[in-house]
Structures are given as structure tokens and as C-alpha cells.
Design goal:
The longest helix is centred in the last third of the chain and has 35 residues. The C terminus is likely disordered. A hairpin with a 2-residue loop joins β23 and β24. The chain is an alpha+beta fold and 531 residues long. It is 29% helix and 32% strand. α3 packs antiparallel against α4. The protein starts with a helix and ends with a strand. It has six helices and 32 strands. Among the domains are: 100 residues, Immunoglobulin-like, CATH 2.60.40.10; 109 residues, Immunoglobulin-like, CATH 2.60.40; 99 residues, Immunoglobulins (Immunoglobulin-like). Keywords: Cell adhesion, Disulfide bond, Glycoprotein, Membrane, Repeat, Signal, Transmembrane, Transmembrane helix. This is Fasciclin-3 isoform X4. One of its GO terms (biological process) is heterophilic cell-cell adhesion via plasma membrane cell adhesion molecules. Its main location: membrane.
């Protein structure tokens, strides 16, 4: 509730203030000579009359929406009843610069307001003043602190200043812009802008154009900004540079060796080839030194001609000495018959090839990891266990059991004589040899089983089919062997069957039946073997 009351009171106070004062639009008008403009004074109630005084005009303008008595000046606004008193100036003159005063008659009293009318006056041409003076020839020495001042006089409003070197921003040390008042003889106040710049000169500053450019309200496309320029001249010794290389020279032809140097004043040069000194303009044997050629901007082209270039010439280092009244500089030049210099970095094609190779390698690694994790492709048979080792172990156990039974029967039949004993000894030796061979084969098969090579899915399926077939055959064989053992145990009660039991035992121990065994893929050798 209190907030609503405050808003209401603020509105009332605002209305009261608007009734008690004159509002103006704009507060300041910045114009060029000849521009058109509108100036407006407003009051919150109806007004009785509207009078406007403009600097440079002889009379006061009494304006109304219904009449216009002064050419070039007309009423501007929504009418006297709306409390508006304004003027439209067709062409602003330089003499109109100053304060425009409007007077409004309201209920027996007169209220007034003012508007600042600034008619821009184009300043004079900028001027560069040298604080640091050059020598009598107009040159500065290297490392001299160059100090200059730009002055733009008699502007309204004051002009801004910017510095350029060869049409690029100078980016040098400048002080803050200074504005000075400069009254004229007719008491019209104008302004002068001043700014200074300074830096230490280097060889690259020589023959460069320093520009001071003014920016002002009166600038137009048809009337560009005004500027002043100064050419800086610097004296310095020949500028040193790294060892130069010249490529693409032809053997057995005249070779032209060029090098560009910077110096001011012009340099005097001499070449030194393997201890032989060739001054400029002279010829020594196959070597000719030419006078330096001026290229502009303190640059000189220095040339050495070599007649009938040999392979030995390409192994030499060519020394050049340039000197002027400021100093001396030495240069080294190497030449080559190669068409281009050796590349110190990879070209774009090599970089692209390396990136592609790395991407392919990463893709292969990711595919291998994915296949191994999901059991696909060449890892598809990882979870399938072939019964080769179990079959081998079962066969070994069967042979051992059969051998034990046979040995028992043979022991019972030892009363048959020396010939039977001799057969028993041979049988024992064969048993021991068979058991040792079976055990060794079983151990080797287990070791090979640990190293079994993973096969593709189709090979695993074929192997599984072979193992199932062998398993059926071994099952039938085991049943027959068990029946034979029971019959042999019964026959051992009589001595008449001793010879037959020994013969059966020898046959069992030998184990050289014609039954096919399981096919096993050995990891050490890619061949199929029978176990």
C-alpha cells in the first residue's frame, strides 16, 4: 500500500515539475554549416505565444502554426495548445553558433529554455612540428629518439588526431590529446588540438612516411579527413643477416649469385672466394663482382657471376663484405645446383599419410579387442573345448587297466614252465614299455593341449564331428574289452588257458589296433596327427 502511495506522489510531483519548467529537445545540436535542423521547447500546459531568439539573426522570431513571417524559419511542433514551441531552420549558418533561447507565455507569465546550437567549423590543415631536429642533410642517426608534434588549429568542435606510418597505425608512444582555446578577432571561440609522438629510430624506419591525420565533425565522403606527412630519413651501417643460400644453379653454366642488403648511405662491397678478393666492378678468373644496384627503400642488390660452374664451386662458402661511412657488415652465401632447398619439416601429404596410418592402426586394435571381448571371428572357438585330451586320457586309462588285468592272469599261470616264465618276462617288459609310452604320450598331449591353437569356427565344427565319431567307436571298443576281461578272469582258474591269456595280454598291451583315433591340431605344427 505504501509503495502505491509513493508512486502516486511521484507522478504528481513530476507533473508539477513539468508544469513549472520548459523541456528542450535536443539539449545540444551539433551541425555543419548548411544543415537543416529542428529545435523544440515543451511545456505541460497550453501556451499563449512562442518566441525564439537565434544567434546571428537580427530579430526575435514570433512563431505560430498558422503563419510564417520569416523566410527560412518556420514553426515546429504539435501546436500552442499542446504546449509546444519549436523552430525549423532550413539552412544553418556559421553565425547561428551559440545558445538558442525560447520564450513561452503561460497564464500571464513567461517561461524560457535554452538549446546549445554548435555549428561545426572545419579546422585548418594539420601540421607536423619536429621537436628532435635532423642533421643539415635531413637525416637522423640510428637509435636517435624521434620526437614530433601534430597541431590542428581553429576547429569547432576540437579535432581528434591519429598517427600513421605508411598508412598503418603507428602504434608508438603518444601523449594525451591537448585542447587549447584560440579566440579570434570577432570573439568567436575556436579550439586547437595538439598531440606528440616519440620513439627510437631503427633502420626499418628510414624512408617511411609519418602521417598526422585529423578527424572532425565536418568530414564527409566528399570531404575526406585532412592530414600532414613527413618522410623520415635514417643513416645506418649495412644491416647484418643470416647466411643466405642460392639454389637452382646449373653446372657448366654461368651462375648468378644475388643477395639483397640494406644500408644507408649506399654500401661498397667486395667478395672473398677461397681467399681470392674480388672488389665491386672487378673480375678475377671466373668470378665477376658487379656494382650494387639500388632497389629503393635503402635496399641494394649485390651480384657475383661465376663462369662455368663446377661441382667444386658448390662446396665453397662465398664471403661478402659491405661497408659505408657508418659501419661494416659481413655476409655468407652458399650455392647449390639443387632445384629447391631441403625441407626441414613434413609436407602436407606426409602429415596426412601419417594421420591415416595411425587411424587405421587404431581401428585394427579396436576391432581385435572387440572381437576378443565378444568371441567373434577368429575368437569364435574360444569357449568350445575339444575332447581330444580327455579321449587320450581315457585311452591311456583303458590300456593301463587292461595291462593290469593281463598281468594278474599271467602271474597265476606261472606254473606252466620256463617257457611261460620267459613269456611273462617279455610281457612285463612290453607292459612297462607300454605304460611308459602311454604316460609320456599323455604328458606330451597335455602340454600340447595347453598350447592348442584356436581354430576358426568351421574347423572347430569339423573337429567336433570327428571326435563324436571316435567317441562312438571307443564306446563300442570299451564294451568289448570289458567282456573279454571277464571271460579271461574265469579262464584263469584252469592252467589250460594260460597260453591263450598270455597271447591276449600281449595283444592288449601292444595296443596296435586299427581303430582310428581323434584328430588333434598341434599348435607347434599346422598338421593333423592321430593320437
Amino acid at each position: 500500500m505504501s509503495r502505491i502511495v509513493l508512486v502516486f506522489l511521484a507522478a504528481i510531483l513530476s507533473d508539477a515539475l513539468s508544469y513549472g519548467q520548459v523541456n528542450v529537445e535536443p539539449n545540444t545540436a551539433l551541425l555543419n554549416e548548411g544543415d537543416r535542423t529542428e529545435l523544440l521547447c515543451r511545456y505541460g500546459r497550453a501556451i499563449n505565444y512562442c518566441r525564439i531568439e537565434i544567434p546571428g539573426e537580427q530579430k526575435v522570431l514570433n512563431l505560430s502554426p498558422v503563419w510564417s513571417k520569416t523566410p527560412g524559419f518556420t514553426y515546429y511542433g504539435a501546436g500552442l495548445n499542446a504546449g509546444q514551441c519549436g523552430v525549423s531552420i532550413e539552412h544553418v549558418k556559421a553565425s547561428n553558433n551559440g545558445q538558442v533561447k525560447c520564450s513561452l507565455g503561460v497564464e500571464g507569465e513567461e517561461l524560457s529554455g535554452t538549446i546549445d546550437l554548435v555549428v561545426a567549423l572545419r579546422p585548418k590543415q594539420p601540421m607536423i612540428e619536429l621537436i628532435t631536429k635532423p642533421n643539415r642533410d635531413g637525416y637522423f642517426s640510428e637509435n636517435t629518439e624521434f620526437h614530433a608534434r601534430c597541431i590542428v588549429r581553429d576547429g569547432r568542435p576540437p579535432a581528434n588526431i591519429s598517427w600513421y606510418i605508411d598508412n598503418m597505425p603507428a602504434n608508438k608512444n603518444t601523449n594525451q590529446l591537448q585542447i587549447l582555446s584560440t579566440p579570434t578577432h570577432d570573439n568567436v571561440e575556436l579550439s586547437t588540438s595538439v598531440q606528440e609522438i616519440k620513439w627510437h629510430l631503427a633502420p626499418e624506419d628510414s624512408n617511411r612516411k609519418l602521417v598526422c591525420r585529423s578527424h572532425h565533425q565536418t568530414d564527409r565522403e566528399s570531404v575526406p579527413a585532412q592530414e600532414a606527412a613527413y618522410i623520415i630519413m635514417v643513416r645506418y651501417a649495412p644491416v647484418s643477416q643470416p647466411e643466405a643460400s642460392v639454389y637452382g644453379l646449373y653446372l657448366e653454366h654461368t651462375a648468378i649469385v644475388n643477395i639483397t642488403i640494406r644500408a644507408s648511405p649506399p654500401p661498397t662491397i667486395e667478395w672473398n672466394v677461397a681467399g681470392v678478393v674480388i672488389p665491386q666492378g672487378r673480375t678475377e678468373g671466373r668470378y665477376s663482382a658487379y656494382d650494387p644496384q639500388y632497389l629503393g627503400n635503402d635496399l641494394y642488390n649485390v651480384t657475383l657471376a661465376i663462369g662455368g660452374l663446377t661441382l667444386e664451386d658448390t662446396t665453397k662458402v662465398y664471403q661478402l663484405r659491405a661497408s659505408n661511412e657508418i659501419g661494416i657488415a659481413d655476409y655468407s652465401v652458399r650455392i647449390s645446383s639443387s632445384s629447391k632447398p631441403p625441407s626441414s619439416s613434413l609436407d602436407v601429404a606426409a602429415i596426412v599419410g601419417i594421420v591415416v596410418a595411425i587411424a587405421v592402426l587404431l581401428l585394427i586394435v579396436l576391432l581385435v579387442l572387440f572381437a576378443r571381448a565378444t568371441g567373434r571371428w577368429c575368437f569364435g572357438g574360444k569357449s568350445l573345448k575339444t575332447p581330444t585330451n580327455e579321449t587320450s586320457d581315457t585311452e591311456s586309462a583303458d590300456i593301463k587297466a587292461t595291462s593290469t588285468s593281463t598281468a594278474t592272469a599271467t602271474t597265476t599261470a606261472t606254473t606252466t614252465g620256463a617257457g611261460a616264465a620267459h613269456d611273462d618276462d617279455a610281457e612285463d617288459e612290453q607292459q612297462n614299455g607300454g605304460n611308459g609310452g602311454a604316460s609320456a604320450a599323455s604328458d606330451a598331449e597335455r602340454a600340447n593341449g595347453k598350447k592348442a591353437k584356436r581354430l576358426p569356427a568351421f574347423a572347430v565344427a569339423i573337429l567336433k564331428r570327428f571326435n563324436e565319431r571316435d567317441a562312438n567307436k571307443h564306446s563300442s571298443k570299451d564294451n568289448n574289452a570289458e567282456t573279454g576281461i571277464n571271460e579271461q578272469t574265469q579262464d584263469n582258474n584252469t592252467t589250460t588257458t594260460t597260453t591263450a591269456a598270455a597271447t591276449a595280454a600281449a595283444t592288449t598291451i601292444d595296443g596296435n589296433d586299427n581303430e582310428p583315433k581323434a584328430l588333434v591340431w598341434q599348435s607347434t605344427s599346422p598338421v593333423w596327427t592321430f593320437k
